[in-house]
């Protein structure tokens, strides 16, 4: 008999740091998931908070090691971009290990004020205010600066944005400029819609910023949509960006930082292979070599890792409700949830995550399709990152089979409309937080019950 455990052992380097199997059951960071399922039921959303700080500290460590190794004279700052997950417990974990914050919208400023009120964030924290800004966002940023957040830094996204702060901010403040990066050659358009064209940057500085009574240019920012990859495209765009920093630095002594955006990947397959240390060192090396070439001081380096910060902390666990053989070879496992409502990027962008059963590892395995509960024909999962098939244990009569999708902690709530109306009115799952107590023991805490029909009815106007 070929067990499911044998399939995984033969296909991957298993167990991993995150996953182990004991007594026929899966452990996630040494947490017995079957025990969690028995306590809370399914469908179940999990947030394993210690992973957030682990990833932040690792990134801080590898950039600081590269800086020391290369005798780089700037410093490194880690920032978390809130759009990846806005939950308070996520931002508190990030702030607790020295992260700065990047915002994307007007309502983000309310999060900043709440975190400051609770003592999690100080007025000295770097607050990078990014994105195309509507009037409310502009005024909220101005109010934050006027309220004494001296390191709140709006990043100019348009040529006219600075005009909006004139008259609203009447004290010295720091600004940045976002550069419009060229997209990868196979992208649908050539240049990013966000940021300011390279050709306009020097004129913007000379005509609007150089003699401004309050604003001082401190940072250049860019973002590569495809992430930080060891490709000719990535290194070419980074070099172009740093060359612009060098040109502007000769005109602007105040300029001292570059923000290279986000883009560290997360493990979406057990076969994941990425050399974080190498990439951090090469980024620092490239910046240093270009600055040395143009004889300008190296900048401080800021990153804005979002998915990397929170993605690997998340998991969603389901039960198999029933199995259906729809023809001679297509077997369906019907789950008690929906990809469209619970993991919308699986449905919308064909995103893949690590898929593993929680129990029955000693059972035989077979090929299956996983079907969601909605009536939409696209609510299914039938392939993994490493192979165009899905295998799960054979479910014998009267056996319960649980399975989970892992490392899906980023963007799910915002894409799915957390607390709102879901497709076919499928409720959002119960949400449980796993965190360490003062003794280092993992404790579970119910963050939110499964969404109720009453909450949906109220949104829809049914009283």
Short description:
The protein has helices at 4-11, 33-40, 50-69, 88-96, 106-118, 135-146, 161-165, 198-209, 232-251, 276-294, 307-310, 339-342, 344-349, 412-416, 453-459, and strands spanning 19-22, 25-28, 31-32, 44-48, 76-81, 100-103, 127-129, 152-156, 173-178, 215-221, 257-259, 300-304, 314-325, 331-335, 354-357, 365-371, 380-381, 390-393, 402-406, 430-436, 442-448. It is α/β, with parallel strands linked by helices and 463 residues long.
Topology of this structure?
Elements lengths: L3 H8 L7 E4 L2 E4 L2 E2 H8 L3 E5 L1 H20 L6 E6 L6 H9 L3 E4 L2 H13 L8 E3 L5 H12 L5 E5 L4 H5 L7 E6 L19 H12 L5 E7 L10 H20 L5 E3 L16 H19 L5 E5 L2 H4 L3 E12 L5 E5 L3 H4 L1 H6 L4 E4 L7 E7 L8 E2 L8 E4 L8 E5 L5 H5 L13 E7 L5 E7 L4 H7 L4
Parallel strand pairs: 4-20, 5-6, 5-12, 6-7, 7-8, 8-9, 9-10, 10-11, 11-12, 14-16
Antiparallel strand pairs: 1-2, 2-3, 4-13, 13-14, 13-19, 15-19, 16-17, 16-18, 20-21
């Amino acid at each position: 008999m070929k067990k499911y455990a044998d399939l995984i052992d033969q296909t991957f380097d298993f167990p991993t740091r995150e996953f182990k199997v004991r007594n026929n059951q899966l452990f996630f960071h040494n947490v017995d998931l079957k025990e969690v399922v028995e306590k809370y039921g399914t469908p179940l959303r999990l947030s394993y908070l210690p992973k957030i700080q682990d990833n932040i500290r690792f990134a801080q460590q590898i950039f600081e090691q590269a800086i020391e190794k290369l005798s780089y004279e700037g410093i490194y700052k880690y920032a978390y971009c809130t759009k990846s997950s806005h939950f308070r417990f996520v931002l508190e974990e990030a702030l607790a290990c020295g992260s700065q914050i990047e915002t994307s919208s007007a309502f983000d400023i309310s999060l900043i004020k709440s975190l400051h009120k609770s003592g999690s964030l100080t007025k000295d924290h770097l607050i990078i205010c990014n994105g195309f800004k509507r009037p409310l966002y502009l005024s909220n940023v101005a109010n934050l600066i006027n309220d004494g957040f001296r390191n709140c830094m709006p990043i100019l996204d348009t040529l006219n944005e600075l005009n909006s702060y004139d008259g609203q901010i009447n004290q010295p403040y720091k600004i940045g400029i976002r550069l419009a990066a060229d997209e990868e050659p196979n992208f649908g358009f050539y240049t990013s819609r966000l940021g300011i064209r390279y050709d306009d940057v020097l004129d913007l500085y000379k005509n609007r910023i150089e003699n401004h009574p309050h604003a001082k240019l401190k940072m250049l920012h860019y973002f590569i949509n495809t992430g930080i990859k060891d490709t000719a495209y990535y290194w070419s765009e980074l070099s172009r960006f740093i060359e612009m920093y060098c040109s502007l630095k000769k005109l602007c002594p105040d300029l001292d930082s570059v923000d290279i955006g986000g883009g560290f990947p997360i493990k979406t397959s057990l076969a994941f292979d990425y050399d974080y240390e190498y990439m951090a060192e090469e980024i620092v090396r490239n910046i240093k070599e270009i600055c040395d070439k143009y004889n300008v001081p190296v900048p401080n380096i800021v990153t804005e890792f979002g998915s990397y910060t929170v993605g690997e902390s998340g998991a969603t666990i389901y039960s198999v409700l029933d199995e259906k053989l729809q023809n001679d070879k297509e077997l369906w496992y019907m789950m008690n949830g929906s990809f469209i409502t619970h993991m919308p990027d699986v449905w919308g962008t064909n995103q893949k995550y690590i898929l593993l059963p929680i129990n029955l590892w000693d059972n035989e395995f077979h090929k299956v399709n996983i079907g969601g509960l909605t009536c939409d024909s696209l609510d299914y999962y039938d392939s993994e990152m490493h192979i165009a098939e899905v295998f799960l244990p054979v479910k014998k009569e009267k056996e319960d089979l649980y399975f989970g999708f892992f490392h899906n902690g980023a963007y799910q709530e915002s894409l799915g409309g957390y607390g709102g109306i879901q497709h076919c009115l499928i409720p959002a799952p119960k949400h449980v937080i796993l965190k360490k107590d003062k003794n280092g023991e993992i404790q579970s805490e119910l963050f939110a019950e499964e969404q109720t029909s009453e909450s949906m009815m109220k949104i829809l106007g049914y009283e």
